[in-house]
TrEMBL record, chains A, B:
Organism expressing this protein natively: Formosimonas limnophila
InterPro entries linked to this entry: aa-tRNA-synt_IIb, aa-tRNA-synth_II, aa-tRNA-synth_II/BPL/LPL, Anticodon-bd, Anticodon-bd_dom_sf, Pro-tRNA-ligase_IIa, Pro-tRNA-synth_IIa_bac-type, Pro-tRNA-Synthase_IIa_type1
Span of domain Aminoacyl-transfer RNA synthetases class-II family profile: 33-475
EC number: 6.1.1.15
Protein known as: Proline--tRNA ligase
Gene: proS
Length: 580, 580
């Protein structure tokens, strides 16, 4: 490849709209150009990295026995009506009408299309399992597209779908995909974690997200530095921090806490640690009821004061899937007080008390007294109030919590989701009446899994994890070029041209993806461009060095260049590449 | 590749909607599945052929110095408003609104996006020429999608755009693309012709279509079997069939031709050849005129009776771009007669007479006498009526016409358009104010070319040209697999399994794209499937043959199989492949 053929247009400054480093660097390096909000063109250099990611994904998917197909981007609405998502999916679904006024969508995902294909062609359990994938442009009409390719509207995704005859089969297909994803992200050269994720109604090990670890990530990941355990904070189990409830040592005392409506203020005022306090959160669930259509059930959730509520966990408790925060009026009725002084002792009205696992084992704790400016001190379960109606994990994990796998304590890091494997079960096959004849001769719904990788998002995530002040630090496997040769003063020196050309061809012969900068730019411009673009290995060939028989090698991650004898440079580059 | 991993689902009958052979065979072979009107999924086997076409196109484009990029499928309407096509483009343009009610299109083509990209980044003539291409899914909302991938709504296209500083540069870029296309269609193994096409206002050699020759083609192509000359009938030059006008030999005679309103009837009635007759066609052009807004100009076009009008050629004559057929009332006013008896001699009103080149050189001809049931016989230009106001080529070429390149006569065949190269000039750069600084330091519009190949359409066209009663006859370069191995009775015979496996691996080692049919189907089913799918080379390994040390080789285009010694079969297949 010759730089003069490429469309190299780097910028000193990123456009103001680029808020995060990957967006800034991709714009500055000229990898992408903005066409509209959340819509980009991939320029020749950027597309090279996209294609390398695609190829690694494709090879590992094929190796895992998945078959590549290509489904349409524009899909008939009928399929979405069948699955129910035509109604359920929000405005992210780009809907449109064709010239005959028929409804279509620009596909954000393809569960409906693949389920339709499989139900038409797979008639018997003997044809199962089937796993099909595609690499395709999708559209999701984000309300606020930003961060470049990290949250664009149009993006490239690899989406795979497995069809099995039973749950065991689905789990085997899932494991294959889990392993393929692990192989993919290793080959991509990224620091990543497979993270147990919330997966709606299926439970168990039914869903993992693959996260690239980066400080700028949007998701909190709970991980065990001593094991493979990792989970999205939404799904990570928070264990009880107190193993067993201690016997009461204090008497219940209603204490004046004037204007101390926050746990932190109460703790300071009373001179006790924050973790002796219990926080009260009041939730409401509106119950549809034929006789009385305005019935509302009130729940009091109790957390230790230094913990925070995990809304996903709460919503999975029986009867709480549609919970909302209670209004001040509802609180006044149920507790006869105002927020800040609510507590579980002697409520004005019967409420359901849900204690977090840690709170359930607390003794001599402090909580609101259901009277303005008063708290109870020395509260004890069983003595001062009945045992909780429900004990459950309803809080977010914090760093230092014991690991759920029993192996030390967890840390929390931030990650960027780039892949997701998901046990779908029969959600789509039942809705769309997609069945096969089982071994018993009876029709059964396919048991499905789905598996996504954000191809273009990986570019952004890789950069968030790999950059410095000068630009991108591509992992070698997805760099637009592996090696760049910068001839200095080639216009004036025949020998520089010759040596550069010789090296260029010898590296091509060796199968290296090499580009030579034949634009005739000054060294400073060449170096700055290639450092910004992030090519992992650079060779500088100039008259001065050649007089001593030397060429400069610089690894993009090193601060200094190394002088290498001309005769050894070819081998030196290959050696550097093999350890990258 | 193993057949059991693939999703092989062939059909005995094509669905009723499949009207043409390529559509029928692609459906029967399971290469595509219909998702909606003009919208298909490419199944694993079909996608393999798509990818092979793409790869050949990509390699030749790269070789020609074009750079691959990827532009968005969903494009902001603003760009189309700038170019004027938001208004000009009909309902084929799939328009839509996003959640913020902004207008977008699903791109049928990308002139606007690429012109926008280039105007932002290319500032100087020094950066030119630039040629960029993409391989991408497009959407064109055809009013009546049909013929499978031949006229679908969603399809894959390779579109390239060149930007030059001047017309000479554009022509050089165009020639490069013309040559690249020639190389592409040769490598695809298709019988094709580069055909001079009508190209609107640019004229000259500004546009060529690449046609796959097939009887089922929609376009008539005029070609010279003795040279490279070929042109779409819309654009093919029709020369004068009479080199020089002969002197009159007959006197003008008004002749009674009762109820003979057609040239054929007149010729038969008078006992003269049809080519002594002249056909009159009356056209009208409405002229906008500030004083009299209903002015209409009447044109009388004269063709030899055995010729047909070429509407494209007529519309390019000065003042005729908006012509229409004259009404009977207009004919009555201008000629004082009814259709069937119109002629150029003594018209009732002044009309502009356009004679086709051949008619202009006729003498002693026959035409309508502007009186019902009467024709003139022995008409001669200059003597019986003034010379024509305009002599022009306004007819369609017919087979046997002299070739415009002077080398023998032309034939007419039918073709399927699969590629188009086009000199755009400054149409888009001027509309979108896309300029660069020229050598004179002044802003100048880019001079553009555009170059399209219908990737998915090529599959259909290749089949229209290559099929038999059993199925598809893929050219080897784009067959989903090059070789299929069919082991017969593998379930019962260890030696069959071993030999098949050995051959399979030896061919893979040799770089052959081979599939082994491990489905355990009967020979008849295997053969029928692979003949339908169209794999070019088949090897059959069975116990009976192996006892004699023989394996069967069958070329998909041969009627008989050949028995080949086991030891020679590897070399035999490679030899057969090298001549394919």
């Amino acid at each position: 490849m010759k730089a003069s053929q490429f469309f190299i247009s780097t910028l000193k400054e990123a456009p103001a709209e680029a808020e995060i480093i990957s967006h800034q660097l991709m714009m500055r390096a000229g990898l992408i150009k903005r066409i509209g909000s959340g819509i980009y063109s991939y320029m020749p250099i950027g597309l090279r990295s996209v294609r390398k990611v695609e190829q690694i994904v494709r090879e590992e998917m094929n190796k895992a026995g998945a078959m590549e197909l290509l489904m349409p981007a524009v899909q008939p609405a009928e399929l979405w009506q069948e699955s129910g998502r035509w109604e359920q999916y929000g405005p992210e679904l780009l809907r449109l009408k064709d010239r005959h006024n028929r409804d279509f969508v620009v596909g954000p995902t393809h569960e409906e299309v693949i389920t339709d294909l499989i139900r038409r062609d797979v008639k018997s359990y003997k044809q199962l399992p089937v796993n099909m994938y595609q690499i395709q442009t999708k559209f999701r009409d984000e309300i606020r597209p930003r961060f470049g390719v990290m949250r664009g509207r149009e993006f490239i995704m690899k989406d795979a779908y497995s069809f099995d005859k039973d749950v065991d089969g689905m789990k085997a297909s899932y494991d294959k995909m889990f392993n393929a994803y692990t192989a993919i992200f290793k080959r991509l050269g990224l620091n990543f974690r497979a993270v147990a994720a919330d997966n709606g109604s299926i439970g168990g090990d039914g869903s993992h997200e693959f996260h690239v670890i980066a400080e700028t990530g949007e998701d909190d990941i709970v991980y065990n530095p001593n094991s493979d355990y990792a989970a999205n904070i939404e799904a990570a189990e928070a264990v009880a921090l107190i193993a067993e409830r201690a016997a009461p040592t204090q008497t219940l005392t209603k204490t004046h806490t004037p204007s101390k409506g926050k746990c932190e203020d109460v703790a300071e005022f009373l001179g006790v640690p924050l973790d002796k306090n219990v926080k009260s959160i009041v939730l409401a669930v509106d119950i549809e009821n034929q006789e009385d259509d305005s019935a509302t059930q009130i729940f009091l959730v109790l957390l230790r004061a230094d913990h925070t509520l995990n809304e996903i966990k709460v919503s999975k408790l029986a009867g709480l899937s549609n919970y909302r925060m209670a209004t001040e009026a509802e609180i006044a009725t149920a507790f006869n007080t105002t927020p800040g002084y609510i507590g579980p002792v002697a409520t004005a009205q019967k409420v359901t008390i849900i204690a977090d696992k840690t709170v359930a084992n607390m003794s001599d704790f402090i909580c609101g007294a259901n009277e303005v400016d008063y708290h109870h001190v020395g509260v004890n379960w069983g003595r001062d109030l009945p045992e909780p109606d429900l004990i459950a994990d309803v809080r977010n994990v914090v760093a230092g919590d014991p690991a759920p796998d029993g192996n030390g304590t967890v840390g929390i890091c931030r990650g960027i989701e780039v892949g997701h494997v998901f046990q779908l079960g029969t959600k789509y096959s039942e809705a769309m009446k997609a069945t096969f004849l089982g071994e018993n001769g009876k029709p059964q719904p396919f048991v499905m899994g789905c598996y996504g990788i954000g191809i273009t998002r990986i570019l952004g995530a890789a950069i968030e994890q790999n950059f410095d002040a000068k630009g991108i630090l591509w992992p070698q496997s997805i760099a637009p070029f592996e090696v760049v040769i910068c001839p200095v003063g080639a216009d004036k020196s025949e020998v520089v041209r010759e040596e550069a050309d010789k090296l260029y061809h010898s590296l091509i012969q060796a199968g290296v993806d090499v580009i030579i900068d034949d634009r005739g730019e000054r060294p400073g411009v060449m170096f700055a461009d290639w450092e910004l673009i992030g090519v992992p290995h650079r060779l500088t060939i100039g008259d001065r060095g050649l007089k001593e028989g030397l060429v400069e090698y610089q690894n993009r991650r090193d601060t200094e260049a190394t002088k290498v004898p001309v005769l050894e440079i070819h081998a030196h580059v290959l050696a550097q590449m093999s350890v990258a």
